[in-house]
Design a protein that fits this description.
Number of helices: 1
Number of domains: 1
Number of strands: 6
Radius of gyration: 12 Å
CATH class: Alpha Beta
Helix content: under 10%
Order of helices and strands: EEEEHEE
Strand content: 35-45%
Strand order of the largest sheet: 1-4-3-2-5-6
Largest sheet: 6 strands, antiparallel, barrel
Distance between the termini: 21 Å
Structural class: mainly beta
CATH architecture: 2-Layer Sandwich
């Protein structure tokens, strides 16, 4: 059995906020190779809405045992999908559910 992979969505206040996020929602992850601040950046999008944040990639923004974007980056293709598990004050915790492997 494969180990479950969890990740944190961070930076939502730079986009649409997190007021509408609820457990069970599906999010799409999309690599952002042209990001000038982080070469392992992964955007988080809500299908039909917009970009809502990034996968956390810092020890200051990753919650608990979640994987950072750097740990997920090589495990997925250009896109992947996650499911919202918990909405917390410091970010949203999701489970990686589909990796769209290369």
């Amino acid at each position: 059995m494969l180990k479950k992979i969890y990740f944190t969505i961070t930076g939502m206040h730079f986009f649409e906020g997190d007021e509408f996020i609820e457990p069970g929602m599906e999010v799409m992850l999309e690599k952002e190779p042209d990001n000038k601040y982080d070469n392992e950046a992964i955007l988080v999008k809500l299908p039909g809405v917009a970009t809502i944040g990034h996968v956390a990639n810092s020890c200051h923004t990753v919650i608990g045992e979640c994987y950072s974007a750097g740990r997920i980056y090589d495990k997925i293709g250009d896109t992947a999908y996650g499911k919202v598990m918990y909405k917390m004050d410091r970010g949203v915790v999701c489970e990686l559910i589909e990796t769209n492997d290369k």
